[in-house]
């Protein structure tokens, strides 16, 4: 039962419970991003040296609103019975593993390791640069959480819109990429 | 005892060919197609029964079954398309 909930929480858990959980996670996520000094975007994270809480709050609100509206728009095209609350819950809940993945930057670990790789690239010694075992593990775990985040977005969208056809899935992933580019432009212009 | 609706040999839908009066043992022969409700799977029939008992409220039904609202609504949509298929084969 618990395994099924992890595979598709949107099929089992009531919408109000999901919304409450999502809102709590949203607030906690903003504080995690702030304390880990990471700027969240839809398909990327940017470790930053200087970051302020209102900016993170604004960025994160832009991401959540844009993603929800975009998915709701294509959800309505796929199935007229699609409800906004189900799409919003999908976005809120999918972000939970994304927030957990931010812990890879505890004490600026990810920032420092990334900086070492960038230095090796600048100096042309990247072929001699061997990343530490810990860095590889941290990156792999972060990648797993990121894949789970995309999976939850997909499965939540699929449940909310009852999508079954290949073109529905193509539309979902195309929208994800396009909205990521648009949100990135919005965030960089703020 | 479960009413068989599919042919065990070719898996096509069965028809009623004989009806019997339990009192006088009169038998009526003919070819009567099964009503749409009986052509549905036992799971689908149970869904319709629950839907009826919950006064057509998908939210109440979802709470009773322990699944989310979109799951129940998706099941209903699947059944609607299945029934349309049965009505217009």
From TrEMBL, chain B:
It comes from the Bacteria. Signal peptide: none annotated. SUPFAM superfamilies: Sigma3 and sigma4 domains of RNA polymerase sigma factors (SSF88659). Residues 7-37, 40-84 form the DUF2089 domain. Pfam families: DUF2089 (PF09862), Zn_ribbon_DUF2089 (PF22747). This is DUF2089 family protein. It comes from Paenimyroides ceti.
